[in-house]
Amino acid sequence: MAQSNRRAAGGRIDRNQPLRFTFNGNSYEGFEGDTLASALLANGVRVTARSFKYHRPRGIMGHGPEEPATLVELDGEDASGNRPATTVPLREGLNARSVNCWPSPEFDLGGVNQLFARFIPAGFYYKTFKWPNWHLFEPSIRMAAGLAAAPFKPPSKGHFEARYAHAEVLIAGAGPAGLKAALDAARAGKRVFLADEGTEAGGSLLNRNLTISGRPAMDWVADAVAELHGMQNVTHLQNATVWAYREHNLLIVNERAPEQGSILERSWRVRAAEVVLATGATERAMVFGGNDRPGVMLASSVQAYVNRWAVNVGTRVALFTNNNSAYAVAADLAAAGIIVTAILDSREHIPKEALDLVPGLPVHPATVAAGMFGHKRVRAVLAAPLSGGASKWIKCDVLAHSGGWNPTVHLWSQSRSTLQFDEDLAAFVPDQAVQPCRAVGAAAGDLTLDRIIDGGEDSAYGIEPLWRVDVPGQRGKAFLDIQNDVTVSDVHLALREGYDNVEHVKRYTTGGMGIDQGKTGNINIIGTVALQKGLPLQEVGTTTFRSPYTPVSFGAIGGLREGWGLFPYRHTPVTQWNKDNGAVMYEAGARWRRPGYFPKSGEGLQDAVSRECRAVREGVSVYDGSPLGTFELKGRDVPRFLDFIYSNIMSNLKPGEGRYGLMLSEDGLILDDGVAFRLDEHRWLISTSTGHADAVNQHMEKLLQTEFPDWQVMITTVTSQWNNATICGPKAREVMQALDTDIDLSPQSFPFMSFREGAVAGLPARVVRVSFTGELSFEINVAPRHMAELWDKVMEAGAPFEILPVGSESSHVLRVEKGFLSLGHEVDGTVDAYDLGMGWVMSKKKSDYLGKRSIELRRSGGGKRHELVGILPVDPNQKIPEGAPLTPGGRKEATEGLVTACVWSVVNDHWVGLALLENGHARQGETAHVRLKKNVIPVTVTKPVFHDPEGKLLRS
Amino acid sequence: MLLIPCPFCGKRNESEFIYGGPVGADRPDPNAATDQEWVEYLTVMPNPLGPVQENWWHARGCGDWFTIWRDTRTHDIVEAPDGTK
Ligand SMILES: [Zn+2]
Fold it and tell me: Model pTM?
């Protein structure tokens, strides 16, 4: 029957809005205002989950984020995993599945694990799956271990969002204490940010029948909310969990289902001058045999289902408690017409004010629950007198238990503020704050309403702690951590095996490591350790509280940074032209998109690259060099600054001249290579490799600002202020002439490594004669707004010369043929300029520059070095994979180097490579051996240059 | 996320900054230092349990390099740069 457990009237649900939903393939109906859990209970669904390790049947145990047993995956437009069923608001069409079970919680194949339960003690995995290694077993264990999988598809509707906020007071929790704090702060004119995890404000008052000054407490809540909403200085969010408390009062709030329909979740990062933690208290479980059976529930949750959601979770309820709060539950149940079959109370003397709440109900002092009868639903509880008398079975279909209350100190502890154990409350309570924050209400240990609001009606707490039931004849497993299936005997085993620090107990047993973070059970683990070791709880202490307080989806953390938005690509003005003309686009350093090569239809990679290389060597090509890092340096002290950061001398360059150089770090490693040009007396232009531009900028700024603050040097990043088209090849000068320029292009007046300003194709330009290919090159730099026009004009002027656009693949081949460095290939943390055959770049005249002393120190020890050489495979058609090792004689021995690059050289009709080889400079002409898995490739060691060794062409 | 006082911009989120390491010893004269002194200068960095002076770069802000004193136990910024607003 539909909603057989729904009460005829009452509750904070809208009976005019029925909602259909699916759980494990079955269809049900609930109401607006339900959670998935309350709707399942209303429909009489008792078994909702299987446990993590033993696959025991489990039901719903809590009513909020403390729920340890029932985790679900959602499908469809709000696809997500590992959500406690108690925190999922019901909506039309919701489709949920329980985790941990296959095919269903009622019939679960993993349940055979229960038969082997005594073979799966604490530390089982650590002890068993050691040989030959854990990774052999991991996949099958992960399959059986049941937490939710990541959703197959991202949520289909909307996106995640992130927002920043600043508050004078941030208040976590909109229960009575939080609302009162919000009213106080808001009335004083402060900017207030109030966030609460529930769908409605009110906190525990939503679940109880209390009064404030004679009126229903929820009326007081409604007034408070209305007043706050009328104030401009208040931001009030519901369904928004404060889940992290970070340094300097930064708190992170996850707002689910914000009002805009297109936004799934919104992540707020709130910096607050003051934080008020009104996070309430969490009821803790009693630990006794069979305390995980479906129908064993937290007392406050039974009360919440009856009052808030109008659900009778059972018809005959027994209670088990060690404090007065469960008597108010019994009173509410009796008033709702539910039969209370027994109240078992571990206390010998029960306060009169508690007894006054339950006139006529059967109260059993000094009695504990010692077992449950019933497998998939409870049928009776075994009541055992602590005095040792005879136990008896008492019928019930729900056992509601209360082990007392823990102030919810997760955020408090995340802020690194300290806790102390309060003997009267038998709980850890906030002690010293280390950030500007304070706890109020139940979170501060004020567990009854009269202590929070003037006129609040409530009964005294009166707890006498009971960390676990320990009576003869106890039946069944007593769980400390329901979610991770950790029992009292697991903790005892951990202690026997020497894991006696509470943090070690946690790791060894996994107690408290579930998604619920042990909200209902951790204190009992601490209590069990304390009892066993004979220590006070303060000395045992708590484990560290870490964020997130409740599960948060990765989408909410990522916000809008999805896909490419995480780290956007950079484009040049000709990116689109490149794509339109068939370029295969590559990612170059620093997220630039750059053409790799331009295949003709049907043409493969190698053929296209060889065709482009031939154009550069024999005709003419154009290359978009815009991504190269470029900086303009101005000021009187630029020359001595450049002399300090480059290993060679730059200060003697004359205006219009440039030079190649290496930048080293202080420990002698190669940071970057590039060229420096002197524009005029006090203005310089330097270029860096594409991928290192940001690092070089940081390096230069740090030196100038921290080491040489009085040097007059101004650095401006101009990478994106100048774009360039580089015309390259023997016919480059002819194309330049066809482009129409007022710059004299003759080699005498515009030699290699010089710079001229002028007009090219009618556009203001800076033309630079550098070459990264070994051929005659003109780098035409123009403003970005002129780049597309320049490109078109170059293609037009170059057409009679059959100009080809080329990509980074052919650039790589051409630089290997010339032996030019590529930082990612030939340079690593061991190589210096001498190894690369570039001793000429290390100035002998300068007494100091960055890295000089370190390299001298490193080389003073002697020893063999890996040096840059060229390699020619003895078989010209034999390709060698880049990164392949060289070993002595090709034998299976320690390597003596590696192949850094290997390309098909069109001009040589031969595969050619570069390698770092031990003592390589002295081994030219010898044969070395590349050792691969299946074969050995003999190579001839050469100088690292395979084309125009004198450099005549690039100077032409 | 730390709240870092930039002397030019005021307090800003850590995500705007790039960490530049602790402030080590002054650079010795490379032509006068012994090998031992040079190696120590390169490799020995302050790493105290307590306040440490460190460099930060307001890379996604004004571009200033400055130093703060940060307590490594608490993240408290116990001394802000000179001239902080
Ligand atoms: Zn700044």
Answer: 0.87
